[in-house]
C-alpha cells in the first residue's frame, strides 16, 4: 500500500479512500480540510461532529474514534473503516474516507441531520413512534440488512441508536464497530462465537457462545428494534445487563402484546413475532421479511418519517439539551457509588456496543439479582428479632462485578457480611440498586423530554457547576488519561485550558469552544486492571436515560469488606473456547460457579447457583476445631467464617423463597391461572396445548422449589445447631483459658 493511501497505527494500515455513501467525490485525508462544528452524537468510543469539508464547502459528519478508548482491537477498527468505505447502498451509511489524527481515527461520512432514532425518541417521542413511521424506518433498515447479508456481513449491532435519519426522511443504518464477516475463516470465524453486541438487542444464540450464530442474529435485533421504536425503549431495558442476558435466554421472546399494544396492526405484531423466534433457523431472512405485508404497505419515508422532526430544534441543540439533562442527573448522584453505578447503567442504557462478557459469570450474577418487581419485604424469624432479608442479601453480595464495562476489568467479589455497614445503598441487591425510579420511563425523563407536541423544550433542573463537576472530578474514579497532544490541526486549537469533556453545563455556556478541543478532552484509556472509570456522561446514545445503579464495581470497599476481598484478574471477554476463567478462586471465599469442584451447583428449578452444603467449609473445619484444648484465638476465625457461611446460606434460601413467592404471585395475578402465554409463532396457534404444558412445567418447578427449600431449611437448621454447639464450645474453651491464665 502506498504511503498516501493510508496511515499506519501500531503496524496497521488504514485504508482511507472510499466511495461509501454512494458518493463519487474525492475527499481528502488531510484533517485541515475539515472544520469541525458542533458535536452531534457520541457512543462508547466515538464522538461525532457536524463538520464542513472545506474544499467542497459541504457538510459532512466526522466520527472521531478514540483508539485508546476503543473496545475493539485494531483489526476490528480497520475492518469497520474498510467495510464502511466499500459500502454502497442508500440505506447504509458509508465512509467517504478515514484517517488517523493523533490517537483518533477520523471517519468522514455523510451527515445525517436528524441523528439517530434513539435520540429522536428520547427527545420527543419517549413512548415510541406511530406505526406508519415505524414501518418506513424498519423497511429502510431491512433493506440495509438485506444488502449487508447478501454481501456476507453480519451487522451485530442493529438498534435504534444506529439507525440515522436525514432531514428529507432518508434512513441509514450505521455503526459497523462490531460487524463480522460471514466468510471469515479461522480466528475471524471464531470471533463469531464471541459474545458481542448490546445486551437488550442480542439474540439468544449470541448469548450462548457454544451455539454460534449467523446473520439471523441481526433479524432478532431487528425485531427488538421494532419493539424499541414502538415503545420508546427496548424490552428488558429497565433491568441490569446481566439480568437482560438471563431473561433473553430463559424467558419467552418479547413481542407486541395483543391487548396492551392495541394501537398497532396485526401485521406489525406478526412481523415482530416472526423476527423474535428463539430458534434462529425459524427466523426469516431479510429478503423474505421484506415481502411481509407490513413492509409492502409501508409508506415512503419522506411521507411518514420527515414529519417526525418537523417542529424540532436542530440536532446539535437537541443533543446539547440531552447532555445537560445527563449532567444534571449525574450531578444529582453525588455519591461515588452512584457514579460507578451510573457508569454501568449508562453504558448499558445508551446501548454501548461490543460488550464482552464472561457469559457463565453473567448467568451466575444474574441469578443473584432479583427483579424489582420480585423484591418483597420478606422477613425472617432469626434469633432474637426479625431480620430484613433484602438488607441481608445486600450485605452478603453488596459488591459484584461491573458487567457494563467495555474495558478490561477485574472482577471484585466481596463476601462482606458486615451487618448494616455493608449496605451501600437502600434498595441495592447484589450490587444492583433496585429502586422505584429505576426504570427507563421515569418521571424525570418524561419531565425533561422535549415533546414534539409541546411547544417548549423542557430542560433539566438547574444545577450548580460545582454539582455538575462533582460527579466527575473524583480522582479515584476518573482515571482518565488526558491527551495533551492535540490533533494535527494547530490552526484550529485554541490555546486555552481544556475543560473536562463532561462539563456539559459549562460547555453549553461556552459556545466558542472549538470542537477539536472537545475531541481532546478527558480521554480515558482502557483500564486493564483496575475498577471501572467513571463515565464522563451519564448516558450517550440514550442520553436521557435515568441514572440507575447497576453492577458497578465498588471501587472503595471499606476495610472490613477488604478483608474478604477476592480479585479475579482478567477480561470479561470470553469466547466459546474460554468460558471457564476463574478456576483459581478459593471456592470457600467466592460463591460462584466453576466447572470443577465448584462450591455451587445449579438449581434446576430457579437457575440460581446454590451452595453445595457438603462442600461448605463447615464440613471441612480443621480437626482442631473439635478439640476443646485449642486456644480461642485459633477457633475464633473458623467460627466467624462458619457464621458468615451460615448467613450466606440463609440468604440463598431466602432468595429461593423469593423466587417461589414471585412465581406464586405471578400465578395469583393470573387469577389462579398461569402466566400469559407469549405471542409466539412457535406455539403454532395451539394456545391450549401451550397453556397446559406451561402449567405442568410451572407446577413441576414449584414442586422442585419446595423440595429444594425443604432441603435447604433442613440444612440450615443443622448448620444452626452446629453453630450453637460450636459457640458453646468456644465459650467453654475461653472459660478454660481464663481459668488457666488465672491459675
Ligand atoms: N453520520 C452521522 N450523522 C449524524 N449523526 C451521527 C452520524 N453518525 C453517528 N451519529 C450520531 O452519533 C452517535 C454515536 O455514533 P456511533 O454509534 O457511530 O458511535 P459509537 O461509539 O460507535 O457508538 P456505540 O456506542 O453504539 O458503539 C449516534 O448514535 C448518532 O446519534
Describe what you observe in this structure:
Helix content is 37%, strand content 11%. It has 743 residues and is of the alpha+beta class. Strands 3-4-5-7-6 form a 5-stranded antiparallel sheet. Strand 12 and strand 13 (385-388) form a beta hairpin. It is extended and about 100 Å long. Residues 1-23, 178-196, 347-358, 371-629 and 668-688 have low confidence and may be disordered. Bound molecules: adenosine-5'-triphosphate.
Secondary structure topology:
Blueprint: E1 6-9, E2 12-15, E3 34-42, E4 46-53, E5 58-66, H1 74-86, E6 97-101, E7 104-110, H2 117-124, H3 131-150, E8 153-154, E9 163-165, E10 171-173, E11 180-181, H4 186-190, H5 204-207, H6 216-231, H7 241-250, H8 266-275, H9 286-290, H10 293-296, H11 301-304, H12 315-332, H13 336-349, H14 359-368, E12 379-382, E13 385-388, H15 389-397, E14 411-414, E15 428-429, E16 432-433, H16 443-448, H17 465-470, H18 504-509, H19 515-520, H20 559-563, E17 565-568, E18 600-602, E19 609-611, H21 623-626, H22 632-669, H23 687-742
Antiparallel strand pairs: 1-2, 3-4, 4-5, 5-7, 6-7, 8-11, 9-10, 12-13, 14-17, 15-16, 18-19
Helix pairs in contact: 3-6, 6-8, 7-14, 15-22, 22-23
Keywords: ATP-binding, Nucleotide-binding
Domain Protein kinase: 34-295
Family: Belongs to the protein kinase superfamily. STE Ser/Thr protein kinase family. STE20 subfamily.
